[in-house]
């Protein structure tokens, strides 16, 4: 799915635009109830097309005043300067009140808005556009049954996904079936990476790596170029660049991480279009497989899920066997599974570059038949057990970490 800006604040803009349309007017009272992970991932992000505004209230106000909910995650892609001025006036009224949702759902958004005698309640659970409940003046307009204890209940069934299934399918799938979606991935994600390398965004990690390649301080090699390209996209996205990206597992950063290093690798190695698309297929599906086990929004850095996809795809494109692909994923998950998510912000780009560097190391080790062994920490007896172990670490072991991070960020 194409999305503009960091996905969590855009989800708030989408919810606000939808609620306002149902209300029929701009509200004069807004209460928003958010899970901790939504707060964490919106607090420090620049909202696209907002002329530099950051955080929860601007994300809601942008959707409320200037959003088009029919565009879903492109909800604020067409905003004028005059509308931004109206957003600022709306924010000056201080009518948006933010509350922490006390439940265990990782992705939860509820807006309660009113104007005079009219009021609307709109609720989103588990995924960024998954509206589960709408009430207007107490009348139920939508009520969707959703298993609150399982975020996968709102997704397509992914039980079929295993590394073996993905590897085998990548070898034989009709390229014409997947070409259209990956052409969009290549076009959209490359554009924002190029913008990140040209402009000044965040801490400029992508641009810094490229500058040091050109100065001869860093080596002029594929590994450095891939890390530069991927992190440049995140530099731009986290700093409010309005260019859309193709997401993976509901995340633009994961979409860019899973795709941009493979795009750069294919260009440097003069691979065919078909080879590139098959590599992207592997990278994205492995990312989805790992992320499905990790869960939607947690203290586990999603870029590491995507970096495992990159390691798998690089190994695949080197002609590596199924066993080597498994070894590459094992190597990166055994190395970087302690990287935390402390919210969406500029440093995401630095974590992406770290993940890409590790993906290349994991790949080269695997191609030389060197792999972390079962019993080395969280490494399981096979790749599927290792991925399940990572999921257990993220969903159970890091729950307290997540709470501590949120506590630090909201002091």
Automatic annotation (TrEMBL):
MF terms in GO: L-cysteine desulfhydrase activity
GO biological process: L-cysteine catabolic process to pyruvate
InterPro entries on file: Ser_deHydtase-like_asu, UPF0597
Domain Serine dehydratase-like alpha subunit, first and last residues per copy: 70-406
Domain of life: Bacteria
Short name of any one Pfam family annotated for the protein: SDH_alpha
HAMAP family recorded: UPF0597
Family statement: Belongs to the UPF0597 family.
Identification of the protein by name: UPF0597 protein CA839_03925
Taxonomic source organism: Fusobacterium nucleatum subsp. polymorphum (Fusobacterium polymorphum)
């Amino acid at each position: 799915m194409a999305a503009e800006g960091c996905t969590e604040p855009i989800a708030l803009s989408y919810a606000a635009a939808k609620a306002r349309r149902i209300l029929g007017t701009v509200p004069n009272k807004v209460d928003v109830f958010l899970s901790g992970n939504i707060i964490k991932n919106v607090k420090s992000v620049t909202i696209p097309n907002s002329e530099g505004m950051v955080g929860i209230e601007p994300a809601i106000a942008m959707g409320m005043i200037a959003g088009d909910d029919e565009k879903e995650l492109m909800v604020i892609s067409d905003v004028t300067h005059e509308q931004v001025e109206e957003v600022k006036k709306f924010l000056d009224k201080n009518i948006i009140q933010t509350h922490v949702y006390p439940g265990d759902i990782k992705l939860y958004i509820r807006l309660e808005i009113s104007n005079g005698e009219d009021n609307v309640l709109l609720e989103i659970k588990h995924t960024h556009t998954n509206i589960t409940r709408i009430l207007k003046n107490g009348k139920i307009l939508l009520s969707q049954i959703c298993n609150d204890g399982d975020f996968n209940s709102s997704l397509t069934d992914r039980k079929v996904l295993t590394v073996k299934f993905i590897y085998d399918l990548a070898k034989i799938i009709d390229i014409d079936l997947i070409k259209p979606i990956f052409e969009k991935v290549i076009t959209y994600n490359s554009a924002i990476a190029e913008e990140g390398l040209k402009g000044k965004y965040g801490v400029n990690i992508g641009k810094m790596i490229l500058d040091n390649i050109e100065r001869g301080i860093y080596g002029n090699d594929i590994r450095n170029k891939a890390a530069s390209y991927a992190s440049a996209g995140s530099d731009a996205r986290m700093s409010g660049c309005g260019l859309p990206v193709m997401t993976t597992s509901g995340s633009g950063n994961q979409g860019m991480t899973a795709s941009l290093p493979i795009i750069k690798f294919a260009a440097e190695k003069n691979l065919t279009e078909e080879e590139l698309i098959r590599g992207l297929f592997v990278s994205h599906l492995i990312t989805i497989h790992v992320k499905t086990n990790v869960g939607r929004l947690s203290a586990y850095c999603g870029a590491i899920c995507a970096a495992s996809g990159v390691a798998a795809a690089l190994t695949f494109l080197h002609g590596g066997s199924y066993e080597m692909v498994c070894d590459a994923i094992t190597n990166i998950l055994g190395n970087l599974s302690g990287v935390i998510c402390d919210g969406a912000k500029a440093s995401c780009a630095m974590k992406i570059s770290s993940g890409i560097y590790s993906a290349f190391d994991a790949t080269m080790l695997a191609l030389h038949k060197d792999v972390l062994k079962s019993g080395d920490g969280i490494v399981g007896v096979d790749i599927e057990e290792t991925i399940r172990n990572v999921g257990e670490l993220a969903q159970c072991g890091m729950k307290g970490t997540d709470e501590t991070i949120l506590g630090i960020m909201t002091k």
